[in-house]
């Protein structure tokens, strides 16, 4: 069984962050390990508190797992501040870790800030050059590219800018352009510096999309660990997230998470039918 590491924040509500990553890895049949950067007090209504761990606490977890376990891929989610990003980048370099997926989490769906502003430059300088792929949503792509105006919404232009920061691939997620309930398609754009590949899925009219970005990037990392090439890894992850959104169920009083177990439930359903 391949081993995959997530370095991210904890979501007490269980829908995003470390919890979403480990659920995603489990259903992709890879072994998930975790390094926690921050503990959020969070539920489906929003983020009520954030306690960022010290750099030493993060690096000590990282050293423990890296000294012992051989990882086939890793992903980063909420990294909170520039000191944590810098130290994590140094460790990834030191251990020559393969298949790094960077989800540059900045803001929760609820609007709560999960990254200090000063950390944007550190992402670009230290972590992106080590990444196989970065997976910003449209808002994050604009902040990273340094464009804030409404007219610079073209994902191709943003991808061309972001690839210059040194990752092998850029995936710009379209969830934020398709938040409107009238939207018909959810389109993500993959770019490797020469070719644009679009991944299109039906847009599901729901607010229960908590943790979509975390889940997608964890699925990409799991697929890379299992030996898929990037186009296939992203294509399969897109199918997984679409099914997970479609099969969401109510968890709390706010925006519920996606259903990580939808494929298992489908399998169970069809085997129950077969044997009943
Ligand atoms: N309503 C929807 N219907 C179908 N696909 C969606 C929907 N919302 C998001 N997606 C898809 O989910 C994936 C994650 O995209 P999104 O832009 O929501 O990421 P994100 O903003 O980083 O997520 P997060 O909510 O975790 O911050 C993408 O593949 C996107 O196209
Ligand atoms: C710990 C943590 N990491 C990431 C997210 C982003 O997910 P979302 O935008 O769906 O709230 C989150 N809310 N919490």
From TrEMBL:
Pathway: Cofactor biosynthesis; thiamine diphosphate biosynthesis; 4-amino-2-methyl-5-diphosphomethylpyrimidine from 5-amino-1-(5-phospho-D-ribosyl)imidazole: step 3/3; Cofactor biosynthesis; thiamine diphosphate biosynthesis; 4-amino-2-methyl-5-diphosphomethylpyrimidine from 5-amino-1-(5-phospho-D-ribosyl)imidazole: step 2/3. Residues 11-259 form the Pyridoxamine kinase/Phosphomethylpyrimidine kinase domain. GO terms for molecular function: ATP binding; hydroxymethylpyrimidine kinase activity; phosphomethylpyrimidine kinase activity. One of its GO terms (biological process) is thiamine biosynthetic process. Its EC number is 2.7.1.49, 2.7.4.7. Keywords: ATP-binding, Kinase, Nucleotide-binding, Thiamine biosynthesis, Transferase. SUPFAM superfamilies: Ribokinase-like (SSF53613). InterPro entries: HMP/HMP-P_kinase_dom, PM/HMP-P_kinase-1, Ribokinase-like. CDD domains: HMPP_kinase. It is an enzyme of class 2 (transferase). It catalyses: 4-amino-5-hydroxymethyl-2-methylpyrimidine + ATP = 4-amino-2-methyl-5-(phosphooxymethyl)pyrimidine + ADP + H(+); 4-amino-2-methyl-5-(phosphooxymethyl)pyrimidine + ATP = 4-amino-2-methyl-5-(diphosphooxymethyl)pyrimidine + ADP. GO terms for cellular component: cytosol. It comes from the Bacteria. Belongs to the ThiD family. This is Hydroxymethylpyrimidine/phosphomethylpyrimidine kinase.
């Amino acid at each position: 069984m391949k081993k995959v590491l997530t370095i991210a924040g904890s979501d007490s509500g269980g829908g995003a962050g470390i919890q979403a990553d480990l659920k995603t890895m489990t259903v992709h049949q890879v072994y998930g390990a975790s390094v926690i950067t921050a503990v959020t007090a969070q539920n489906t209504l929003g983020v009520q508190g954030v306690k960022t761990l010290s750099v030493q606490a993060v690096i000590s977890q990282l050293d423990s797992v890296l000294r012992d376990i051989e990882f086939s891929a890793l992903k980063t989610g909420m990294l909170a501040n520039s000191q944590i990003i810098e130290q994590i980048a140094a460790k990834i370099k030191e251990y020559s870790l393969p298949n790094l997926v960077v989800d540059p989490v900045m803001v929760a769906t609820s609007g709560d800030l999960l990254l200090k502003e000063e950390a944007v430059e550190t992402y670009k300088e230290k972590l992106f050059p080590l990444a196989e792929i970065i997976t910003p949503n449209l808002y994050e792509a604009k902040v990273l590219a340094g464009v804030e105006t409404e007219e610079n919404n073209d994902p191709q232009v943003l991808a061309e800018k972001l690839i210059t920061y040194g990752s092998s691939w850029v995936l710009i997620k379209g969830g934020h352009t398709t938040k409107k309930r009238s939207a018909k398609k959810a389109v993500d754009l993959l770019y490797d510096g020469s070719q644009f590949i679009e991944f299109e899925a039906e847009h599901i009219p729901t607010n229960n999309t908590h943790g979509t970005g975390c889940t997608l990037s964890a699925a990409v990392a799991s697929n890379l660990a299992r030996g898929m090439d990037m186009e296939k890894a992203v294509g399969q992850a897109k199918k997984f997230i679409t099914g997970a959104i479609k099969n969401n169920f109510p968890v709390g009083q706010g925006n519920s998470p996606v259903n990580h177990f939808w494929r298992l439930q489908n399998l169970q359903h069809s085997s129950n039918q077969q044997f009943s």
